[in-house]
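Title: Comparing notes on inverse folding

I've been comparing how different people in this forum approach sequence design from structure. To keep things fair, I'm posting one structure and asking everyone to reply with a full sequence. Here's the target:
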């Protein structure tokens, strides 16, 4: 195996192929507006990513909730690998009047080489009319 140097003079005893295996991988999932029906859990976005080697996957989602005709209630959103909103990484938004509220979530997950992971943004509400707008979701893989 040869050495790879840069213009500053730092060297590594890795091959380009080995370095590429640990390089960050980014997957992006975009969606249009996501209406969230009262009393139902809705998958508003999905992103899939494969880990080339063992590492971590950081998943983030952002957008905003628009709640119209509100007389109180809550909306929960969570990044998850399942179909149930869990206690980890959950954002709760309370609506006392008609509101526009930001949604911003980030979670980290362990990753095993060669495994493909599906992450979703799940939301549920007790409010009659809520829409998640301008939703963006990203998954970033980083090597250990």
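Reply #1:
Here's my take.
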């Amino acid at each position: 195996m040869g050495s790879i140097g840069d213009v500053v003079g730092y060297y590594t005893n890795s091959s380009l192929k080995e370095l590429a295996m640990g390089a960050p991988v980014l997957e992006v999932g975009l969606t249009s507006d996501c209406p969230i029906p009262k009393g139902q859990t809705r998958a508003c976005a999905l992103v899939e990513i494969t880990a080339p080697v063992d590492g971590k996957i950081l998943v983030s989602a952002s957008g905003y909730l628009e709640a119209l005709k509100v007389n109180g209630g809550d909306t929960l959103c969570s990044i998850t690998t399942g179909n149930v909103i869990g206690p980890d990484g959950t954002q709760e938004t309370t609506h006392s009047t008609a509101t526009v509220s930001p949604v911003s979530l980030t979670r980290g997950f362990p990753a095993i080489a060669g495994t493909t992971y599906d992450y979703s943004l799940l939301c549920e509400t007790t409010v009659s009319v809520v829409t998640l707008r301008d939703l963006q979701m990203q998954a970033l893989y980083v090597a250990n």
